[in-house]
TrEMBL record:
Protein name per UniProt: Penicillin-binding protein activator LpoB
Summary of subunit composition and partner proteins: Interacts with PBP1b.
Family: Belongs to the LpoB family.
Encoding gene, per UniProt annotation: lpoB
Domain of life (superkingdom): Bacteria
Residues spanning the signal sequence: 1-22
Pfam families: LpoB
Keyword Membrane set for record: yes
Principal localisation: membrane
Gene Ontology biological process terms in this record: peptidoglycan biosynthetic process; regulation of cell shape
One example GO MF annotation: enzyme regulator activity
Organism from which the protein derives: Proteus vulgaris
Annotated stretches, region: Disordered: 28-50
Keywords noted in UniProt: Cell outer membrane, Cell shape, Lipoprotein, Membrane, Palmitate, Peptidoglycan synthesis, Signal
HAMAP family: LpoB (MF_01889)
Amino acid sequence: MKRLLFVAISVFLLAGCPSMLPQQPPVPVEPVTPTEPVEPPKPIEPPIEVVPTPPKITRINWSAVVTPLIREMAVTDDLEAGKLIVIDNVKNNSGGNIQAVNATNTIIESVNSISALQTVPYTQMMSARKALGLSGEDRLGLRSAAIGLARHLKADYILFSTVDGKKDNRVISMQLMSVSSGEILWNGRNKIE
């Protein structure tokens, strides 16, 4: 029994040891004197990058460039009045911005006003391109694709236009091709100013 009593007392004694912490004197509290408010630091702004100005787009008077060529093409001996012509989108090989859509539209307007040929309507051209799996913006780069489209549209002629050269020395070249034979009936060049 002595042993049991000794174990019980030692258990009570050991259980009470952790609860006895050494007493520390209280920390003196110093009164805080108000100071002027400090502004928070401003965030560091990233350096401002200068955005380069885009290249200046020069306006090209496509009517002045294209009209003489269409007049020259209109007097070609091999052309028959009233026949259908497909106007291919102008291809830009110059490396600069030439507003190719404006050039193509001007060619179509010039052919309609000067020549006795009839251009294929835009809606008919787009539906034929869709039927052949071509997007509206695709230029008919391969002559075989262009002739295939012209045959699908039952056109008699196709007109290709290409812009070559550098900024100050650009030239537009046009070729009129017969759809049935693939023969080049007319070609012409004019300087773009």
